[in-house]
Amino acid sequence: MSSATAPHRVSAAPSLVVTLENCPEAAAVARDAAGDLLQGLGPPLDRDASDAVVLIVSELVTNAVRHTRTATCTLSLTAAPDTVTVSVTDSSTHPPRERNPDVRGEGGGFGWPMVRRLAKATWVETTARGKTVHAVVARAGRGSA
After folding, report:
1. Whole-number Å distance between alpha carbons of 3 and 99
2. How far apart are CA 121 and CA 112, in angstroms?
């Protein structure tokens, strides 16, 4: 079972921290939590940006579940005036890596490149205790500029 903390404010920016068990349902719980935060933002994100945030949340949490074999991961979302930052922390020290996509659909390889295309910035912080993958999404998507 996954657990989530209630959204809270940090430095007057709307934010959310959700700790999830690494199980198949984690991505769905993370998407729902992200959607709830995004719906409460004012001004709201445009549709492209909102879709990008939810897709990135889903992909990064799925990667933590599938590739890290750690017990939990933590999703953090922070909204700033022009951006939303998605961060996923787990206890694996192995950063995401580019792989040749498996066009037969059996081995993946599409997610990290997709995250990097949707975000205006990505980076990985690694410590001896694990890593945090960050992706920053502009609040106004590509279609609205």
Report:
1. 31
2. 13
- Number of compact structural domains in the chain: 1
Domain that holds residue 88: 8-144
Each residue's pLDDT tens digit, 16-35: 999 999 998 999 999 999 99
| Radius of gyration from C-alpha coordinates of the chain | 15
CA angle in degrees (0–180, nearest 5) for 13-28-52: 55
In a domain, 3, yes or no: no
How many residues can be counted in the chain?
145
Angle at 10 between CA 7 and CA 15, to 5 degrees: 35
List, in order, residues 6 or more apart from 128 with CB less than 8 Å away.
93
> Is 95 strand, coil or helix?
coil
Domain membership flag for residue 124: yes
- Residue 2 included in any domain: no
Reported as a single tens digit per residue, the pLDDT across 70-97 is 899 999 999 999 999 999 999 999 888 7
HSE, side-chain direction, 13 A CA sphere, residue 96: 29
Sign of the four-CA dihedral 105, 111, 116, 119: positive
